[in-house]
Amino acid sequence: MISQANPDSGEDGFSILEMIVAMTILALVLGIASQSIVTASRSIAVAKEQVEAARAIRAMLANYQARGGSADMDMTQPSWSLKTHTIEVSKAKLTAIVIEGSGGGGGAPFLTFVPGQDTNSQ
Fold this sequence. Notes:
Blueprint: H1 16-66, E1 80-89, E2 92-101, E3 110-115
Antiparallel strand pairs: 1-2, 2-3
């Protein structure tokens, strides 16, 4: 004799509740993964901007020091400004250099100190 399987046994496949739970978990995992990818790509873009800003600052400082401390220099980056202020500490002279973005593109100003140039010896 051939026995026929009962199609209403309920043991074949997944129930609708199991499918809803599985799809909800999948949606949550995919949402978290996509948000992580977006955050990582934004972080990469910010890091590239910071590297470019650091390169521009290094070039400006090298140009400043090559000109003997002259603040009147040709700016290679028109969106950046350089301001200097001479400070005397005891018998030493220091020049405070502030480089900041003038375009409002963001980023904190860069502050550094270099030894002051003696104007009497030149």
